[in-house]
Design goal:
Layout lengths: L7 H8 L1 H23 L4 H27 L9 H18 L8 H27 L2 H4 L3 H33 L1 E5 L2 E5 L1 H25 L24 H31 L6 H26 L1 H26 L1 H15 L1 H21 L4 H29 L10 H11 L1 H14 L6 H12 L2
Antiparallel strand pairs: 1-2
GO molecular function, one term: symporter activity
Keywords: Membrane, Transmembrane, Transmembrane helix
GO cellular component, one term: plasma membrane
Length: about 450
């Protein structure tokens, strides 16, 4: 079968949208929990619950938006109108979310955070689900999809760099000092507002590039009448379910790591400012190792490369749990750099494996339901994120965490548990499920042959 190579400009125009998508993902993963507890003053259990509700709402809307985009027909295509509107709404609600409402009542603050977060995640869904659904429509080549998603995830790393490397310096630069009870307290509220404006503009503009420079292919068939029965294609696709649950467990582990990183440096190392440098030690090896993983995936298969990457992360987490708090920051940075090599697989390989499973569904059912598949994909990944944030909030509440003060040993140990063994458990579950994933290059060629016969 003849290989279909995409033009470089198409890969670049497609990939750039994930600068904003991953920028927002990183901000939400690394900063939202800490922003709620340490800046807004929300109790950890309420903060974790608010994020969980927001994520669940986000997850519920994902398949709905995917379903709608599958059955939308406009002169601009099925996906791009949603991306355009969602990008504008993301900017608006990012600014609202990171503007401190100065609400002292815990119940009112909880509901404010929950409602605004639901609006923000809805805007993210409008952008991200249709964007992801473009992947199988741009190419059906097994290896070209890995290349396409390599470009996408390279831009995703750029977004992660911006959020991880620039967020805290911006927050710190615009923060103010106030005197309270004779003590100097740093007020991060104006810093978070400034950060949201800058990051919101970047998020919106990166989406606009994809909207205006990617041309959607004309659907080769009449768009079918919408039916809720279409969601049944998911359970008829075992390969899809396997990679779906693999990614969900992976996202739980990633969220546990990202959500506790700031707490680790602020309260174990007593050096909050080093969080940005820690992100860079993790992400620089991630960025530079991505081409190696793409090449390795062509040699040993996407599945086994993904398993190897998660195995590297498990090793890094064990080293951190047993020795990170003893051997100090240089050791921790070294382990982060090592872990970053494995961390790269989570950016490229799940998104490269997913379209192959979508093709399997088309071969079996004869229906193109990319939006439903990608909507369900983000539904389960965000359910995983919601569970992880809830675990963090409840765990910190149980051990009586109080923000912006020295923590007792029980709190410090809990932070280490979240960053170590608990995250490891979910990576191990992801590996176990992925072992049973059946589609390799040869199997995918057979799937494509079946599709072309239709």
């Amino acid at each position: 079968m003849k290989k279909h190579s995409l033009p470089l400009k198409t890969k670049l125009a497609f990939g750039v949208c994930d600068i904003g998508g991953n920028l927002f993902f990183t901000l939400a993963s690394f900063w939202l929990m800490n922003y709620f507890t340490d800046t807004l003053g929300l109790l950890p259990a309420l903060a974790g619950t608010a994020i969980m509700i927001g994520r669940v709402w986000d997850a519920v809307t994902d398949p709905m938006v995917g379903f709608l985009s599958d059955h939308t027909k406009t002169r601009w295509g099925r996906r791009r109108p949603y991306i355009f509107v969602g990008a504008i709404l993301m900017f608006i609600f990012m600014v609202i979310m990171f503007t401190n409402p100065k609400i002292s009542n815990q119940n009112l603050l909880f509901w404010w955070a929950t409602i605004v977060l639901c609006f923000l995640f809805t805007a993210y869904t409008l952008t991200n689900v249709p964007y992801s659904a473009l992947t199988p429509e741009l190419t059906d080549d097994y290896d070209e999809r890995t290349s396409l998603n390599g470009y996408r995830m390279s831009f995703a790393i750029v977004g992660t760099f911006l959020a991880a490397g620039a967020a805290f310096p911006i927050i710190d630069a615009f923060s103010s000092k106030v005197v309270m009870d004779g003590q100097i307290i740093i007020d991060r509220s104006p810093g978070f507002s400034a950060m949201a404006i800058i990051m919101g503009v970047i998020t919106m503009l990166s989406a606009f590039v994809t909207v205006f420079f990617i041309k959607e292919k004309k659907a080769p068939h009449r768009i079918p009448k919408a039916s809720l029965k279409d969601f049944g294609v998911i359970v008829k696709n075992p390969p899809y379910l396997l990679i779906l649950f693999t990614y969900m467990f992976n996202m739980i582990a990633i969220t546990l790591l990202s959500g506790t990183m700031i707490y680790y440096f602020k309260y174990i190392y007593n050096n909050e400012s080093l969080t940005t440098l820690a992100f860079l030690f993790l992400l620089v090896p991630t960025l530079f190792s991505m081409p190696l993983w793409i090449k390795l995936a062509t040699w040993i298969g996407k599945k086994w490369a993904y398993i190897l990457g998660m195995g590297i992360l498990i090793i890094g987490l064990w080293l951190t749990f047993f020795w990170g708090h003893i051997l100090g920051i240089p050791f921790f940075f070294g382990v982060l750099a090592f872990s970053g090599i494995g961390f790269a697989t989570g950016y490229v390989l799940p998104w490269s494996i997913l379209p192959d499973a979508v093709d399997y569904g088309y071969a079996v059912t004869g229906k193109r339901n990319e939006g439903i598949y990608y909507g369900a994909w983000t539904f389960f990944s965000k359910m995983g994120q919601s569970l992880a944030n809830f675990i963090i909030g409840i765990a910190l509440q149980i051990v009586h965490f109080s923000p912006n003060v020295s923590q007792p040993p029980t709190v410090l140990f809990t932070i280490r548990l979240l960053f170590g063994p608990i995250a490891i458990l979910f990576y191990a579950l992801a590996i176990f499920v992925l072992i049973f994933y059946p589609i390799d290059r040869k199997h995918h060629q057979q799937i494509l042959q079946k599709i072309h016969k239709r």
